Amino acid sequence: MKCWLTIIALFTTILAPAQERGITPAEGTKTAQTGTTRAVVVGISDYQDDNIPDLRFADRDATAFAAYLQSPAGGLLPPENVNLLTNKAATTGAIAAAMDWLIADCKAGDRAIIYFSGHGDVETRTKFQRGFLLTYDSPPSNYLAGAFALIFLQDIISTLADQGVQVVMISDACRAGKLAGSDIGGAQATAANLSRQFANEIKILSCQPDEFSLEGEQWGGGRGCFSYHLIEGLTGLADGNADKQVNLLEIGQYLQTKVPAETAPQSQIPLTVGSMKTVLTDVDEASLLALREQKEKSLPVIATIETKGFETVLLAGADSIWQKKYKQFTTAVQKGDLLEPAGASAYDLYTELSNVPELERLHGIMKRNLATALQDESQQAINAYLRSDEEEIAAQFRGDLKYTKFVRYLEKAAELLGEDHYMYKTLKAKQYYFDAVDIRIRFTWRTFSLADSSLIWDKQCEDLIRKALELEENAAFIYFEQGLIVNNDTSYYKKAIELAPAWAMPYGQIIVPLVVAGKMEEAESYAAKLMAMAPESSFAYATSGWLHLVRKNYEQAEQTFLKALGISPRNVGWLKYLAWAYFVQKKYQDAEKTWLRVLELSPNDNETYNELSGLYVEHTNEFEKGIAINLQRLKMRPTDGDAYADLLDAYRKSDQPDKIPAMVEEMKRLDAIIENWEGTLVLGEVLFYDMGQKEEGMAVLKKGIRNAPESGWGYYLLANQYRDIGDYETALAYIDTAFSKRINLEYIERYSDVPQTVRSPGYLAYVQKWMAKFPDWGFCQSLMGVYFDEKKDWEKALEYHKKAVELNPESEFNWFYYACSAYRSGQQKTADSLFQKYLSQTLDLADSYNRISYFYAHLSDFKKAEDFSRKAFDKDPSRAGEYYYNQSCLQSLQGNSTEAFDLLETALKNGYKNYQWMQLNSDLTTLRALPEWKVLMKKYFPDQATN
Question: Which burial class, exposed, middle or buried, applies to 78 when counting CB atoms under 10 A from its CB (0-12, 13-18, 19+)?
Fold first, then answer.
């Protein structure tokens, strides 16, 4: 570990030029210099003798300083003028020869720079204790036999000064470690000797005499804190008055600002001695600009302080009990037992040891290194994310629980360092960021709840991201997360791209809001950039596959997702995309197999449970599988309200209403014992619709609203119930409240029956209000078109429907309403064309053909109704029961009772089992009045018909 770093400048009467860039230690002068600069730069980390402790970053510091000297910022020294000696090359003989080179070649008016980074020691107590610099081949003791004596170094400097050569001495010659002179403070004595003032020398010391100079990986990937900031300061960051020069006062102030803050809580305060007006360097503007841009695009990190040999020295006089406890602490840090187990965690051991006076000089190091360990894993996750690491992307799709841990760790790390520490704001920003990530993942993949609208979670996430950006306004990954949370806004992804132009993920994610906005060409351009940037990335293939899905190129989507999975086979996100590609092609067995694979990798993935339940209940009529998958879900998580909703749907579709009452009783029990239970809204629905307990169902929904007042879902579901009892005004008011909670507009568009309330007196006012609130949401225009449809003002109706599809051309329902309006206004050819456009936008053609059939049937165009019903059957023959049921309804509406009964029995024979809907459907009112009805019901539903 570094102990001291000293810059000593010995001046002659010949002054340095202000115009020449690089270190120019001239005392306030601005006269020109025409001399040559030469440098000997030495750095030793790997010592030949095992009894001299190796160092970590001494050679890196030397190499970095040599590179600085050869850069525009350091004076553009030619390679032949910089003699860099590191590790094996830095023998005593090689260093002596390099010094002879300086003496032989330097002339009056030249500059000589001597840089040494390595061990310094004093072996025996003498009057002056000038000490030694330990070279690569120095002996571990008896330094006179082979180390480089400081008295020789002083002679060399004096000789150069007498020749009229300006001399700059930079020394990092005191490191912690068990050396021959450790017991008498040899390293400190060497440093003290280097810091003594001889004549005109300028000194910049890395720390006070009783402190240690620290190093770690956070500084340039492995550097000394002082030397790292010294180079940055000389490059121009220390130019406080912006006069394009850095003098001793400015570098001193800069170092005293940066170094103590970044080494805290361990104390390291730089010291400067000499004339404060001395100009050290002229600033190269291009180098400074590049440095500023680089720093603006990166966040500071905190890393472990190198302590090799440090503890040995400071623990030597401590009680053996505390030595043992300290070893337990370091072991716990290394093992990752940071906050657990209780009593043996690194945090608990630190708390105990921080009260031991004997270890006071170690307290800062312990606190710093524990805080570093607490943030290290989360930093690695950020780094992996920024390089689009396959496993890190997969972890988020998988709903990894590690992000919950990151939040706790970062909070504790910030608490340890305290609000005054330079890293406090960064740690808090990362804490808020990971908290938002964790909430997003828990909502999306682990604990989706019908009782808690996503908007509640979204608001929490937005608040957390806002706090994070207030602390770190230039973090690309935080803007990216904001883009994920705030849907349909490209600005956050563009900001992330601006801050991190080489990061691939924003290029892929930005295409989602672009597609939603209908900007396919721009979306394609970003997808092309992504593929060019990361041609072997699964993320690039998955993005391309998603675009194929949007374009309905399902086979290409399937193949592209398979390529993504070939690169990242455990990525559940790509598996879910592939399953969907199979599903829309009606490859139901492949879809099922793929979704089941998702559950193997991510057993709590609610979205996949939903998909499997829908597959079994809605498409393959495997009702028992649908029931089983939801019972499996409830076995894992008995309070899962969403599982109850899907189970209820399975019982309804499989015509097992006898199973519902027991389920309702269990839901009532959970609702009574769990505050704000996520299944409360589901319970309200089942009481209202299945149990016929309308008042109680509405009361339960109102209770859900009270428990989760920011959830739009409760208001929306209650609106449906008021609509179903004919109270359209109240229904509209609740839908309006749902909108104020920013409920999912796409869901409302797909499943809402708002057009049914068109005859309500308040309908127009509400729709006008929604149009003002959501000016770019085409569905509002469709609702206005429905209003004028009802008024038979076809010109205005068609005007609004046209505007709807212009705003949201990807919305199938806007096309459907437009087509219906055209047909009702007498424009049948236009209607046919618009229905075709509607069909081109939908994923489930069978459902869409049935919807068109229903529309024609209730306008008494039975021929077209029958044609579209037949097309639905052709698209999905597995739904034969549904097809014959619809045909029965069409015959019933035409008064053909005999044909209707025959078709209904055929439907029942083919698996149609929705007994409850048959008792309610107004299309079958004529049949229910005939005696044959009871006979048919008793034949196929003996239990329900009897009751």
Answer: exposed
> What residues contact residue 778 under an 8 Å CB cut-off, 6+ apart?
803, 804, 805, 806, 807, 808, 811, 814
Q: One-letter amino acid identity for 215?
A: E
Query: Which pLDDT score is estimated for 268?
Result: 80
Report whether 11 contacts 200 (CB < 8 A). yes
- Considering only CA atoms, which of 66, 152, 163, 158 is closest in space to residue 106? 163
- Coil, strand or helix at 710: coil
| Mean per-residue pLDDT, 835-855 | 88
**Whole-angstrom Cα distance, residue 465 to residue 482?**
6
- Asked, as a colleague might, if the bond just before 25 is cis with ω within 30 of 0, I would say no
Cβ partners under 8 Å of residue 564, min gap 6: 538, 539, 541, 542, 545, 571, 574, 577
* DSSP, residue by residue, 429-494: HHHHHHHHHHHHHIIIII---SSS-HHHHHHHHHHHHHHHHHH-TT-HHHHHHHHHHSTT--HHHH
Q: Tell me whether residue 323 is exposed, middle or buried, using C-beta atoms within 10 angstroms of its C-beta: 0 to 12, 13 to 18, 19 or more.
A: middle
pLDDT band at 781 (very low <50, low <70, confident <90, very high): very high
Residue 517, SS3?
coil
Model confidence over 802-823: pLDDT tens digits? Answer: 999 999 888 888 999 999 999 9
Q: Would you state the structure tokens that stand for residue 524, as one six-digit string? A: 């394609």
Pair 180, 186: CB distance under 8 Å: yes
Residue owning tokens 């997003």: 440
Average pLDDT across the chain, whole number: 84
Query: Following CA atoms 906, 908, 910, 912 in sequence, which dihedral angle do they give, to the nearest 10 degrees?
Result: 130
Give, for 121, the enclosing helix (H) or strand (E): strand 120-121
Pairing, β 120-121 against β 202-205: unpaired
As a whole number of angstroms, the distance between CA 535 and CA 457 comes to 35
Separation in Å, CA 101 to CA 98, 105, 138: 5, 6, 21
The residue whose two tokens read 């841009």 is 293
Report the candidate in 505, 510, 539, 537 with the shortest Cα–Cα distance to residue 524. Answer: 510
Name the β-bridge partners of 37.
111
Query: Confidence class of residue 123 from pLDDT cuts 50, 70 and 90?
Result: low
Q: What is the pTM of this model?
A: 0.66
State how beta strands 2-10 and 271-273 pair.
unpaired
Listing DSSP states for 408-437 in one string gives HHHHHHHHHH-TTSTTHHHHHHHHHHHHHH
CB of 486 within 8 A of CB of 436? no
At 82, is the secondary structure helix, strand, or coil? Answer: strand
CA–CA dist 594, 602 (Å, integer): 12
- 231 has pLDDT over 50: yes
Under 8 Å between Cβ of 681 and 701 = yes
Close Cβ partners of 838 (under 8 Å, ≥ 6 residues apart): 812, 815, 816, 818, 819, 848, 852
Helix boundaries (H) for 534-571: 538-550, 554-567
Helix axes 812-824, 828-841, angle to 10 degrees: 170
Confidence tier at 130 by pLDDT (50, 70, 90): low
For the segment 148-174, the average pLDDT, to the nearest whole number, is 80
C-alpha 248/C-alpha 244 separation (Å) is 14
Vertex 114, ends 111 and 118: CA angle to 5°?
170
Reported as a single tens digit per residue, the pLDDT across 294-349 is 777 666 666 666 554 556 667 777 888 998 999 999 899 989 999 999 999 999 99
The full DSSP string for 787-848 is HHHHTT-HHHHHHHHHHHHHH-TT-HHHHHHHHHHHHHTT-HHHHHHHHHHHHHH-S-HHHH
